[in-house]
């Protein structure tokens, strides 16, 4: 679904409707400098139900270390109700 934002992801069918639920991306990759802010972004997603997927990747851009970390959302978390805190804490 490249180019599709999370609000356009089809939701699973539910007999009572799903107006209280928003789809969330099942897979995320965060990248950035290896600093406290990057760790905060990963921690926020983990608090929101995401799990680390594999080891982090590290590279160097000539001045600083750049890190990438994949996170996945388990199926039971993928359609959990969202609050303002979890609207998309890391953009």
SSE inventory with pairings:
Blueprint (H helix, E strand, L loop, with lengths): L26 E7 L2 H12 L3 E10 L4 E8 L2 H4 L13
Antiparallel strand pairs: 1-3, 2-3
Order of helices and strands: EHEEH
Overall residue-averaged pLDDT value: 77
Number of strands: 3
Task: Give the terminus-to-terminus CA distance.
Answer: 18 Å
Largest sheet: 3 strands, antiparallel
Strand content: 25-35%
Low-confidence stretches: none
How much helix is in the residues? 10-25%
Number of helices: 2
Strand order of the largest sheet: 1-3-2
Shape: elongated
Q: In terms of structural class, how would the helical and strand content be classed?
A: alpha+beta
Radius of gyration: 15 Å
- Work out the oligomeric state of the chains in this entry: single chain
Pfam families: DUF1737
Domain DUF1737: 26-72
InterPro entries: DUF1737 (IPR013619)
Protein name: DUF1737 domain-containing protein
Provide structural commentary.
There is one protein chain. The protein is an alpha+beta fold. The chain is 18% helix and 27% strand. The protein has a domain at 25-81. It contains 2 helices and 3 strands; from the N terminus they run E-H-E-E-H. It has a 3-stranded antiparallel beta sheet, with helices on one face. The radius of gyration is 15 Å and the shape is elongated.
């Amino acid at each position: 679904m490249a180019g599709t934002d999370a609000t356009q992801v089809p939701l699973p069918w539910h007999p009572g409707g799903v107006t209280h639920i928003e789809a969330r991306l099942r897979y995320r990759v965060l990248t950035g400098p290896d600093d406290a802010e990057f760790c905060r972004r990963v921690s926020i997603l983990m608090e929101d139900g995401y799990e680390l997927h594999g080891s982090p990747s590290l590279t160097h851009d000539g001045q600083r270390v750049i890190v990438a970390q994949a996170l996945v959302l388990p199926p039971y978390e993928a359609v959990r109700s969202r609050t303002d805190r979890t609207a998309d804490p890391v953009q």
